[in-house]
Amino acid sequence: EYTSAITTCLEALELPLDVQKEISSVGAIYSRLSKLYNYEGEEALAVEYAQRKVDIFIENYGRVDPNTAEAYQWLAYYLLLQEDYRLALRNYQKAHQVYMELYGLFHTDTEDSYYDLATVYRSMELYDLAIAHYETIFHISDKLRGKESYQTLRVFTYIAGIFRDQGMYERAIQYVDTRLAHYKRIYSKRHISIIFLYHEIAKTYDDSGEEDKAIPYYENVLRSCNKNLFKLDLVFDDYCVDALKKVKKRKSDSDALRYNQ
User: Fold this and answer.
1) Coil, helix or strand for 135?
2) Does residue 98 surpass a pLDDT of 60?
3) Rounded distance, CA 225 to CA 115, Å?
């Protein structure tokens, strides 16, 4: 139970710890309390203990330290859950600045901090800023892993999501299609990544009201589901079930139309 776990953590903080020597343990307890309070719906307490972790890490590790940067990120995360976007952004920016000072641009921690910032900008509906950050992520990932790595290509899907948020469905499909074209060169046509993108395009057409264009992609999903050689995981199964429903509905609507005629 969360309540008993919270009690245990609070009791641990009462122990005569030498904070200088046990700073990581104290930080871990603060982290645990933040998570537990968040699960309990006590958002203010989740933020309070995340802030305590930031404060104690700054005091003992200094500001320019990866532990402090990660603490900033967790604090921002809980603020983001509360939709306090401006404070979340401020703390994500602090984490980003630390990573830039420590590692420069081409490092995975810096890359992750760009993802954090893009997420907040998207939540704030500052779409141009979000896209600019995703474009920087693409540049970093290309340098670290190459243009056709999974981590690089997934940026297209994030940018597509931003265009979909704005009702710009054709632009969204262009970005997903670009990722799909790359994947078709890398993977077999029944690879789950390709099935995911077929479903993504179909759903985008559905959202735009263009069901006629969606159906062929749902049918591609179904063909891959039927022929796939590995066991279905839950997400993959959801794609197949959703596609089957869409195609069956389309067939039922067509049959009804022919009957009425």
Assistant:
1) helix
2) yes
3) 32
**Stated length of the chain:** 261
CA distances from 124 to 19, 53, 88, 120, 163 (A): 38, 26, 11, 6, 14
* Residue at token pair 């759903």: 203
Residue with tokens 């039922």: 252
Q: At 40, phi and psi to the nearest 5?
A: -80, -5
pLDDT at 92 exceeding the cut of 50: yes
CA 128 to chain centre: 18
Give the percent of the chain with pLDDT over 90: 62
Residue 94 near residue 60 (C-beta atoms within 8 A): no
The pTM assigned to this predicted structure is 0.85
Which ranges in the chain belong to alpha helices (H)?
2-13, 23-39, 43-61, 66-81, 85-103, 108-123, 127-145, 150-165, 169-186, 192-207, 211-227, 234-260
pLDDT score of 234: 41
Most confident by average pLDDT, 145-149, 215-219, 245-249: 145-149
Please give the Cα distance from 31 to 42 (Å, whole number): 14
CB 32 within 8 A of CB 51: no
Identity of the residue numbered 255: D
What residues contact residue 98 under an 8 Å CB cut-off, 6+ apart?
A: 63, 64, 65, 66, 68, 69, 72
* pLDDT tens digits, one per residue of 217-240: 888 887 776 655 444 444 455 666
pLDDT at 229: 43
* C-beta of residue 119 within 8 angstroms of C-beta of residue 138: no
Q: Which residues in 134-154 are b (16+ Cβ under 10 Å) and which e?
A: bebbbbbbbeeeeeeeebbbe
